[in-house]
What does this fold into?
Amino acid sequence: MEYNQKKERVVITGMGIVCPLGHDIETVWKAILAGKSGVDKTTIFDASTFPTTFSSEVKDYDISKFTKNPQLHKDGNRGSRFVVGAAAQACKQARIDIETEKPADRIDRSRMGIYLGAGEGAANHEAFFGAIAAGWDDQTQQMDWAKWTEVAEEKMGAMHELEQEANMPAAHLSMLTGARGPVRSCLTACAASTQATGEAMTLIRRGYADIMIAGGAHSMIHPLGQTGFNRLTALSKRNDSPQTASRPFTASRDGFVLGEGAAVVILESLSSAKKRGVPILAEIIGYGSSSDAFRVTDMHEEGRGAIQAMEAAIKDAGISYKDVNYINTHGTSTAENDSIETKAIKAVFKEMAKQIPVSSVKSMMGHLIGAAGAAELITCVLAIRDGIVPPTINLNDPDPQLDLDYVPNVSRKTRVDIAMKESFGFGGQNNVVIVKRYEA
Amino acid sequence: MAGQNRVVITGIGAVSSLGLTLAKTWEGLCSGRSGIRRIKAFDPSKFSCQLAGEVEEYRIQNYVPKTFRKMTKLMSKDIELAVIAADEAVRDSGLITKGIDEQKINVKPERMAINIGAGLISCDPCELAPAVAKSMAEGKFDIKKWGKDGLDLVTPLWLLKYLPNMLACHVGIIHDIQGPSNTITCAEVSGHIAIAEAAEVIARGDSDIAIGGAAEAKVNPVLIMRQCLIKRTTSNHNNDPEGACRPFDADASGSVFGDGGGIVVLENLDNAAGRGARIYAELAGTGQSACINSPYEHIEPDGKGITIAIEKALAQAGITPKDIDLIIPHGTGIPQDDLAESKGIEAAMGNEIKRIPVWPTKSMLSNTGAASGGLDVVAAICAMRDGIIPAAKNCQRIAPGCNLNVVKENTKTDIRYALCCGYTYGGQTAAVILKKYEN
It folds into this structure.
């Protein structure tokens, strides 16, 4: 077999998003181009005494705008409920019928799959902490499991427990769309939905499906999630100024801002898209995945894994690094990521590195963790469509060590034909996807 | 996989309630032992199901290179099980990675991939208990006190023990795997899908070697409670652990959960043949679909999503049901799911269903969640290697409506093609077809 034989070109025929900047593509895009921040005081739980008191929440989301059967999704975790909205938008744009036993779209459901990078649902904290409190004897440092069980059994609800599982957002999309092709869910931390989108593309290329509903859904804005990240000292603690807290590539960056949301892209074989006569938004041409194999606590100092993933994606796309017009960074606003990512971009893009606009949407949206990659990939497609690239906001005191063109503070008009989206997960799993202006 | 790079399996490893090695696990399966016992990890006396398949005690330090011993502090049991099973599989393959012997490495790290399926890991309630104790106000847990006082008692790297991707990350660091890396989180079908995707990565040319499989430690009070609340566990066998999990049996009343890990080394055929590796089997075909139902704790009654997955795998392997010599189903012992699965398999197999031996393993291994597919694939390879299908346990009288030929006694037979299939709450289904390797 020929190396990396590509039978099918894969295009994007629909997109949808539910994120802190809005619940539809155009609203979110307008906010991004205007450099708006979605960050504010945390309201999902009382975080007022946590080291970080703010986050980037999805606000005023109404699932009934997207589904005629909101009851079916009422127990869904935040990610599941968001992804129903994002997928409904994307399917509408791609003319895929949802919530019907008899779709009129002539799409064979066994040739339509789902691939999400999705995370856990929040625990019922009253039950989780309450059961521990009931059973624990701090004097003897012993757990009385009988007492723990009593509270756990009474307070933990069956459906709430089930909905914590990471495969449940995909389950909700199965119900919404009736997809019977490959249905997968992965959770490679912050790289999950970039990976899901890339892997979904390979499934179409290899003929396993004609259409893949790909993307991500996640919310870690819950007490245990925030506890974990605060203890890792990964989060910004700029409590007096939440909206300027996510400040990638600045000298004063002090961590990322926890966000939440869902984003979906409809990937389709070019032949299927043509046959159905649906508008093509962009082509997805390259995917690269790698591992740092370094430390679970830190990125490889030279960005070895990041470089390998970028180079793999460029090779897979059959292009040169010189062809890339825009890089949408992982850009988390942590000290480590932003400097290593910059180093990696320089290693891959060589003499071109300083000429390519690179920006971080996380400066506005926060870090959607598992959902981040797909949400940010959507902005790459829109950059190609409108000839304008998102800014990195809050970039007023550039880190002197970091000298790429980060598109500071103001979005910029520039023609983009090929854009790269990169995501790097905690633990060292790296994923990169490349999209291109569609040309027949 | 016809017309692609052919993918073969050259190394296998397992850890289960039947033993810390594949040899012990396989020996237990062949002698009809069950690893299911009363739970020891915590006092289960108030749980409706007090049973589980727990792995015996081990020292994780024995499974990692000396330089990695400090890292074991960051490993939850799920991660440890993956590390143990991967260590065995890599050693079995004859590949020498950095983790096996740094002086004699015979692999290219950037041409190796990893794909390990994982469950949603729950933390140990006792680990957070001192922090919870510091967060009480008037006898109740107070989130404000947690944020101010309790949180500081949580160990700084706490979160890293519980991220599902850390199974692949730790194993990848130990063995210096620098190529594509993924973590499939499709609950009880994660292992099947991880192996399928690992094979795809090789087939499409993105790596020569891949570690695939899954591990999960289900014996955690939160996870067992979850399964009890969803009513997927049996509650009337607490005095009869060995007889508790009864896949496809008329007296089945629910599943029993447990710990496990099943990992394989997949390899490009040319790569394996080139280094003279022992080749167990070829990955002939995989298929996937969904069988979501509403309400969705259980799968759709006709198991159609299982049928579709099997049909896709058959098509990819270029074979028909006539060629299948063994089926290892998901077989959880949950009556309505067993019936649905049986119907789904029957629909795919047609008349051949009367002939094909069906061997459910969970009566002995327990339901190891994400690890199920990994363990079943490894078990199928052992059956193929030894030409033996062990007897199913706890299926004396087949449940009405389940028209499966569940194996009654250990049977010597040549197995050319074996099918492992699975499904999960949440609806994902998968099928993996292995072919005995022939030159």
